[in-house]
Amino acid sequence: MAQTSILGRISQLISANINAMLDSAEDPEKMLDQLVRDFTNNIAEAEDAVAQTIGNLRMLEDDAKEAHAAAIEWGDKAKAASKRADELRTAGNTSEADKFDNLARIALSRQISYEEQAKTLDTQVASQTVTADQLKDGLNKLRVKREELVQKRDELVSRAKMAQAQEKVQTSLKEVSVMDPTSELSRFEEKIRRQEAMVRGRDEVAASSIEEQFKSLESDEQNAEVETRLAELKSGG
User: Fold this and answer.
1) HEC readout, the chain
2) What is the mean pLDDT of each run of 10 residues along the chain (237 residues)?
3) What total of structural domains would you count in the chain?
4) Which of 133, 160, 178 is the last residue of a domain?
5) Cut 0.70: pTM above it
């Protein structure tokens, strides 16, 4: 029966461990959305099944009431016919009395038939009532479970995203520890130091060249002075 199938699916969804399902999911957010859709679809299907079951139950209840009423009505007709037969038989009208007794028998037969029908319908009403109550109970539990899932959705998605962010940070830290970027800075700093040293060396070379020129000039001046004094000595000055 469709009701049994719906009850089975409701039972499975109600007993589902949402946290366990999320732990095994590759994408928790998609898993949550799919769970909400599944719950929503099954709720709609369960609502249809409950509505159909309750509708059938109400029809059975109406039929049972009609059967009970018909049984009472035919019982009253049997009583009336039997009473009339007795009156006619007392009056000496046997043939007419027999006719009304036959009518009483027919009425009693109808009464028995409706009583049996009412009994069968009462059994069906009781069975359908149990099924309807089970479906309504399962439906209510499913609604509560869906509300719980919807309420937790944002929290669980946030937790999942936070876990992913933490995992990325941990991965980045591991990569940094494997390849330290400060080593590149050290090599760059050493290159700059060599360039600075080269500049200082060139400055010293330039300064040394100027000093030698001045020394050469001083030497030339000193030689000129010596020659001048030597010429004075020779001239007897």
Assistant:
1) CHHHHHHHHHHHHHHCCHHHHHHCCCCHHHHHHHHHHHHHHHHHHHHHHHHHHHHHHHHHHHHHHHHHHHHHHHHHHHHHHHHHHHHHHHCCCHHHHHHHHHHHHHHHHHHHHHHHHHHHHHHHHHHHHHHHHHHHHHHHHHHHHHHHHHHHHHHHHHHHHHHHHHHHHHHHHHHHHHCCCHHHHHHHHHHHHHHHHHHHHHHHHHHHHHHHHHHHHHHHHHHHHHHHHHHHHHCCC
2) 58 60 65 81 84 92 96 95 94 94 95 96 94 86 82 74 78 61 68 81 71 67 73 72
3) 2
4) 178
5) no
